[in-house]
């Protein structure tokens, strides 16, 4: 059987070249560049290598062992994205491997970016080419563990491994599977993106529902700060108040009207703003203007 990319094999050094070594098995030779060795190699020495195709498509060898193989799954880091083609993934060797666009969501905005991590394996095509393949749902189910009831409302972090129109799936650091409904996030996360949230429900099968939205008492500080920053960026006044249309508030601030009213109420209670005639004003800014006059 001929040698194939993706294999880890032990070959014999048959000869040395100016830039490396030729390794042989049953009269089939493979090139091992000096940059891919762990030191000098002797004639007839046995060498264990990983086989891959170099940039020119030639079957080559490296003594660096990949952390992703055709035999199993693991996390690997994305190193580059090519629009309309896919993303390249570092498996631990000098050659990065392509994750094709056909295995990614149609919307490129949620493709992995540099430094994102994907849970994946190596697959050899019919033509012997190596590609990255994302773990399927059955694989994720087998890899995951059940969440205990004690994890309810606990903070978790993890990697997004699947996106749908109605939500996203996360594998947490604890190896829980979680579903993030579109209503429980402000923006749609990318495949491979690390996110943090909290468990809001634990299902009978041990999977979870996760929210990326802050708790009310946490979010209020953040949202109030963002609203106040917006007011100040407009010279201390904005044409929104607690009776503004809910859709207008959603478009401008990305929050519900109830959340907006809580934040405005907090700012008013702290003496930072006041409302008048459908507008919200910064007390600090207008007190400063009055003193200057």
TrEMBL record:
Pfam family, one: S1_2
Domain Conserved virulence factor B-like winged helix residues, every copy: 226-281
Domain Conserved virulence factor B third S1 intervals: 140-214
Domain Conserved virulence factor B first S1: 6-63
Domain Conserved virulence factor B second S1: 73-131
Family, per entry: Belongs to the CvfB family.
Protein name from the UniProt record: S1 motif domain-containing protein
